[in-house]
């Protein structure tokens, strides 16, 4: 440090330096004041000299003095009452801290929660939170105070000792269930329970240490569950009297699972582990009698899917959808209803049961009861057997032993038809039931109100079409069209085919399922291989009901037709309107025509409104995709075009492996 003395040429006038001592002698402050415009600098030594003059020797903060010197010499501004020394106050001693004599419960939040859940806290609930807590009885030591902590003496700024004489009390809170000793050095429990210590508060919470059995009865009184809480330290174990009393108190008197209760009581008493939510009583539900039922002795329909062979392939050789019966043949048996069995709830109240309702023998046309057994239904004549609604009927079957060709002509029959061989090109077959074909169908037109089975194939130049109200099963298909309101099942493959199903389309051909053409199903398309290496465009579409699309087209054509008619009527009415303006009155015949046209216009307008609403409803249903999907078991080739609802996805690279293709969050996904 370079001191600038007052007698040096550049010293200037020395500033005024004053030291102020506090009244309690515990601090000193410094004031430095310039006395003229030519005030000189100050030094730290000058300040220390002032402190020595005052005999200030303790608590001097040298770093503050250095900072003051630098600040004043730089600014020559007044500095007033800056603290530069501070004494040390004495620190009082403290009483010893209270410490629990046994492991205490220290979680205040969980304790409050236990108190809310039950008015009687059980030791098992506390041990589940803190397994170290111990029981204390009346008079047991709960806590004691630790040794006192000594205080520290102080010093004022003149270095004089300030003796510590005080002790501070600790701020503990002693609960109602604690009894302190006269000197407050020990604390004993007033009750039996668990010591608690949190937020500097000491207490004992009352706890049930005996085994505890709790019952919950179901609202329907059909079951009861029990909670078995083991005893704590010195607590009473489970007894049969305790269990019996609890059951009686809750009105449980029936369906008691006594062996289950005894086993769990023995287990809990032995190992001290709680058991919760154990069913200890179960009522007996009333068993209602079953209704009468019909046992059929023939296949009543269901799935037309072919059976799998051992090698995984399928065919339709053993499948038939037309069932015949001879006169007198047994068709069904009527089974009587059964009586109900009463039950009871766990309070012993009886639960009534209903007897089953009887059925009638399902006798339809050409069937009746057996002469010696009125519960047996037989055929009264030979024919085709089917179930129509709830009745069994036998209808005249039509069977063609050969082909449908020029020898037979077109077939139009109101019931089911069995054709043993082929249907040749150019012929129509229209049936009111099922159609069973043993051979091949060429470029023919088929319309069936039921199901269609073609045991071989459907092929030709593309002029053939099958329309079925039920399902269609076919061995293979080439170039032709199938429309089914049920399922379409193909045993092998479809090549350049157009297949539409209101439900599902399934292919069983492993080397090839479909290539070329269009496959459309409302719910699902399933197959092994779609498309080919040559990239032939093959369209797979799900989520679209083809019957609604056809209805939409028909509706639009009708709207167009009615629109044209409406325009013609309006043109004729316009002519009559002009005549009325010129002649002010129409002749009787003209007036008649005018009124007739007005009525026709009103009728056409109403029809157009109804058709427009129908079209809007159809369009809403068409876009309802649901869970439509495509199941690929082996691969997809480039050239396959996937459509789900209004979303499209062209397959550009070969996709290998099992895939489920669905619409997820508005996008086509391969899962």
Automatic annotation (TrEMBL):
Q: Which segments does the entry list as coiled coil?
A: 552-621
InterPro entries recorded for this chain?
Answer: FapA (IPR005646), FapA_b_solenoid (IPR046865), FapA_N (IPR046866)
Domain Flagellar Assembly Protein A N-terminal region, residue spans: 17-199, 214-388
Please provide the record's keywords in A-Z order: Coiled coil
Name of the protein this chain belongs to: Flagellar Assembly Protein A N-terminal region domain-containing protein
């Amino acid at each position: 440090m370079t001191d600038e003395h007052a007698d040096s040429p550049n010293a200037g006038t020395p500033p005024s330096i004053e030291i102020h001592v506090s009244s309690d002698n515990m601090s000193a402050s410094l004031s430095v004041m310039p006395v003229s415009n030519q005030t000189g600098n100050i030094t730290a030594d000058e300040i220390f000299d002032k402190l020595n003059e005052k005999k200030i020797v303790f608590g001097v903060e040298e770093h503050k003095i250095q900072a003051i010197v630098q600040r004043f010499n730089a600014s020559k501004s007044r500095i007033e009452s800056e603290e530069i020394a501070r004494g040390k106050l004495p620190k009082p001693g403290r009483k010893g801290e209270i410490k629990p004599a046994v492991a205490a419960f220290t979680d205040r939040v969980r304790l409050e929660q236990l108190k809310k859940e039950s008015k009687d806290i059980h030791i098992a609930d506390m041990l589940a939170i803190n397994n170290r807590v111990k029981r204390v009885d009346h008079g047991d030591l709960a806590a004691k105070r630790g040794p006192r902590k000594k205080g520290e003496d102080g010093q004022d700024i003149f270095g004089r000792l300030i003796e510590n004489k005080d002790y501070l009390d600790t701020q503990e809170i002693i609960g109602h269930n604690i009894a302190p000793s006269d000197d407050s050095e020990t604390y004993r429990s007033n009750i039996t329970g668990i010591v608690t210590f949190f937020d500097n508060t000491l207490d004992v919470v009352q706890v049930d240490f005996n085994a505890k059995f709790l019952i919950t009865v179901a609202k329907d009184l059909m079951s009861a569950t029990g909670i078995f809480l083991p005893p704590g330290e010195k607590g009473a174990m489970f007894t049969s009297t305790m269990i019996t009393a609890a059951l009686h108190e809750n009105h449980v008197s029936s369906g008691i699972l006594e062996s289950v209760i005894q086993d769990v009581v023995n287990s809990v008493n032995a190992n001290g582990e709680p058991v919760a939510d154990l069913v200890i009583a179960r009522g007996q539900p009333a068993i209602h009698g079953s209704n009468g039922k019909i046992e059929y002795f023939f296949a009543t329909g269901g799935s037309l899917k072919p059976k799998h062979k051992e090698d995984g392939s399928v065919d339709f050789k053993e499948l038939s959808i037309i069932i015949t019966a001879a006169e007198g043949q047994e068709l069904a048996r009527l089974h009587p209803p059964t009586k109900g069995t009463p039950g009871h709830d766990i309070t012993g109240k009886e639960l009534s049961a209903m007897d089953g309702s009887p059925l009638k023998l399902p006798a339809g046309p050409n069937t009746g009861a057996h002469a010696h057994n009125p519960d047996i239904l037989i055929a009264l004549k030979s024919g085709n057997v089917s179930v129509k609604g709830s009745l069994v009927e036998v209808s005249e079957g039509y069977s063609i032993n050969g082909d449908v060709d020029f020898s037979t002509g077109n077939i139009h029959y109101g019931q089911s038809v069995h054709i043993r061989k082929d249907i040749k090109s150019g012929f129509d077959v229209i049936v009111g039931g099922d159609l069973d074909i043993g051979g091949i169908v060429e470029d023919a037109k088929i319309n069936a109100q039921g199901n269609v089975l073609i045991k071989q194939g459907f092929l030709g130049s593309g002029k053939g079409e099958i329309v079925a109200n039920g399902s269609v099963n076919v061995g293979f298909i080439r170039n032709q069209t199938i429309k089914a309101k049920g399922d379409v099942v193909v045993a092998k493959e479809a090549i350049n085919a157009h297949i539409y199903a209101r439900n599902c389309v399934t292919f069983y051909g492993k080397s090839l399922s479909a290539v070329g053409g269009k496959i459309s199903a409302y719910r699902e398309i399933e197959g092994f291989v779609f498309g080919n290496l040559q990239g032939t465009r093959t369209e797979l579409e799900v989520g679209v009901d083809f019957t609604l699309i056809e209805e939409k087209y028909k509706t639009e054509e009708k709207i167009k037709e009615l629109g044209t008619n409406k325009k013609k009527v309006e043109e004729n009415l316009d002519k009559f309107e002009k005549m009325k303006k010129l002649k002010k009155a129409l002749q009787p015949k003209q007036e008649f025509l005018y009124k007739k046209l007005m009525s026709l216009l009103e009728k056409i307008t109403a029809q157009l409104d109804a058709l427009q609403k129908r079209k809007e409803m159809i369009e809403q249903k068409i876009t309802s995709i649901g869970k439509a999907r495509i199941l690929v078991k082996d691969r997809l080739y480039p050239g396959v075009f996937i459509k789900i609802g209004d979303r499209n996805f062209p397959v550009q690279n070969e996709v290998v492996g099992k895939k489920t293709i669905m619409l997820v969050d508005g996008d086509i996904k391969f899962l």
